[in-house]
Fold this protein.
Amino acid sequence: MPRSRWTIGNWKQNLLRDAAEELATAVVGDLPEPVAEGGKQVRVGIAPSYVALDVVRPWVRPQGPLFLFAQDVAAQDEGAFTGEVGPAMLHDVGVHGTLVGHSERRIHFGETDQGVARKVQVALEAELRVVLCVGEGLEIRESGEHETYVVSQLSAALSNLPLELVGERLILAYEPVWAIGTGKTATPRDAAGMHRRLRAWMEQQFGAAGADRSILYGGSVKPNNAAALMAAGDVDGFLVGGASLEAEAFLQIVRLVVSAA
């Protein structure tokens, strides 16, 4: 299956319910229809906070144009796990997918590669889409070991994953930690090079099913750098942070991805 192009907005710990609904309606109101051109379908998603999922849900549709993502998911479906939200619960409120392994979860909440692996598998088994996030900090990048480090994250998350789960619902997101919230951005060459390395590892592990995975870039993505990143090749779209909190900025990025498809 040809790779899909995605633009996904991660709203993080922002927006109360009324503001979240207002932003969702603004995005839907001016969202270009998904297109299939050159065999690549364009899709758009938003990931509000847990408490805003229900007010945003009426503005999304099961087959698009807008997909609803959670920002995280529990590593188990149910049980005595205070504060956790499992995949069945996400399904129950109409969520289509979830982010897993975002750098902020790893850095601020001590999420391990092993924990990420469990979340990926349980979410895929529950038929959710999964955006698996990997990426390196500045020290790793400057040491020249960034490709080895990021591939090790990917390997830890997926090496024991059954082949039948490596399908269209699995999406990768490369997010250089040093470019998140800092105003810095990986150059198009940096991004494309890492995406090629990740795709090569996926093909080596999973064959054609792995090579066909969509790989998004996430790291201070804005309308003024998105076009160059897409033009570099091997970038299938974006996981957008701060710019996704402004409807017009997010929609500009969506249009750039649509035009590049």
